[in-house]
Hints:
6-stranded antiparallel sheet, Jelly Rolls, single chain, binds zinc ion, 197 residues, binds D-sorbitol-6-phosphate
Amino acid sequence: MPSFLAPPLQPLRIRFDSPAATAEPAGPLLVRRMSSLEGLFEAEGLRRELADAGDPIVYTVASSPVPELPRELPQSLTTIAPGTLGGEFYMTKGHQHPDPQGEIYLCLRGTGGLLTFDGATTSWIEMTPGVIGYMPPGWAHRSINTGDEEYQFLAVYPGSAGHDYQWVVENGMGERIFRGPTGVVRRPFRVDTGVPA
Ligand code: S6P
Ligand code: ZN
């Protein structure tokens, strides 16, 4: 069973295998299927149908064994499958860090976007290989695959930041991201109704 290492750590050589979407040495591996994304897509009925019929993998998160502890600097490789649900691109759940601290994502392959929201303002960063998206402290973040291939990025974040998923359920991300006739369409999202404004 892969797990985080216990401190004190020794210097580590970590290899992220991009095609395999794995880390070596390996830490925790998270597999998020459609069934674990309840209430996040606009088309919740369609999501439920898909969860009951095949339950496809939407994304995986392969972490190194560096622990999520104060003063450590964990890393993870997120790989999001291509696809849409009711026109809305496949995406991560999205979260806020309870202990507000900065984080970076480095795009390794595919085409995607980094949606960030501080509770009032939404920001969208287009991600292509070689681009770093920087999330300042206090900005919730969600990743979206806007391409036809897998979208993959490396995340590096402070070990004491923590993860609050309920914040996004309660506050939304300010926008939803859809496939339009000529590309990406960003629509305002009202959290009170769950439908675009
Ligand atoms: C951790 C970092 C990423 C995400 C991953 C999955 O701080 O932001 O490793 O955990 O991209 O997203 P989510 O929203 O399901 O955690
Ligand atoms: Zn994060």
